[in-house]
Amino acid sequence: MADTDNLKEAKNYYPEIPQRSELFFLKGSNSYDWGMKNRLARIFSPTSGRAVMLAFDHGYFQGPTTGLERVDITILPLVPYADALMLTRGILRTIIPASTQKPIVMRSSGGPSILKELSNEQQAVDMEDAVRMNVSAVAVQVYVGGEYETQSILNMTRLVDAGMRVGIPTLGVTAVGREITRDARYIGLAVRICAELGATFVKTYFVPNFETVTAACPVPIVIAGGKKLPEPEALKMAHDAISQGAAGVDMGRNIFQADAPVAMIQAVRKVVHENMRPEHAFELYQELKNSPAVAQA
User: Which domain holds residue 134?
Assistant: First the structure.
């Protein structure tokens, strides 16, 4: 206990200065509790308001896809350059060093493989395990227009409710089925449904007229990288998405399947956090690709 002898009387109350409560920097997130906002501030940079998430959760339904055969060899060199890691709990437990300070967005839905109807997912991770793993967010697939649309939406709402109880955000990931046209009308519908039903932030695909999607969504949107593109096209997609209101990217194949993944993720960072033009980012990519340090990574 503090010594009470010679205790000085408090006097610096600053009554002439009103107390200020700082508004949270992230769209639609100011009313969350402190723990929820703190976790979001680990994923998204408070300086730029954006995030470069590295997605390598593909194995939960695709198995050992190209570039992820050995996550310990191909992904660990990329970790220092990512703002957040999106992965499964199996890879988190077995591959990612517990000493990492990177925030974790943990895939929490699953079920069918690529051999079956993908929309038939269930909640696959209990929130108790997410707390145990000290994750910063959980991610769940939502199949708007899919055969199991309602089931996938309820998977998300259950995670949202559980996350609210413990202060863990939920990322709603919109999935586009083979029979659905990927355009602003559909994407706008899907992300709005996720947001309306409680998703803290949403991952979706970049499409023409994307500014209408971001404008109508009350929570942050990060774009999926999608299928592998030539590096200049992937950088342009990231730039166009950011310029049209995206709060970041959650890229996988366009980074870990690039000719020089370490160079690519650094170029993507410049686009996302510093608004670098895609042509300049590609020049940076080529420069880094040819540097000995990056070549050895």
Answer: 34-220
Q: Whole-prediction pTM value?
A: 0.92
238 in a domain, yes or no? no
Instruction: List Cβ neighbours of 85 (8 Å cut-off, separation of 6 or more).
Output: 53, 54, 56, 79, 96, 100, 102, 103, 104, 105
Domain total of the chain: 1
Q: Which residues of 139-172 are buried (b: 16+ CB within 10 A; e: fewer)?
A: bbbbbbbbebbebbbebbbbbbebbbeeebbbbb
CATH number for position 108: 3.20.20.70
Average pLDDT of every residue of the chain: 93
Q: Is 198 left (phi over 0), alpha (psi -120 to 50) or beta?
A: left
User: Is 139 domain-assigned?
Assistant: yes
Active-site amino acid positions = 203
Q: Minimal CA–CA distance to 168: which of 94, 104, 72?
A: 104
211-263 pLDDT, tens digit each: 999 999 999 999 999 999 999 999 999 999 999 999 999 999 999 999 999 99
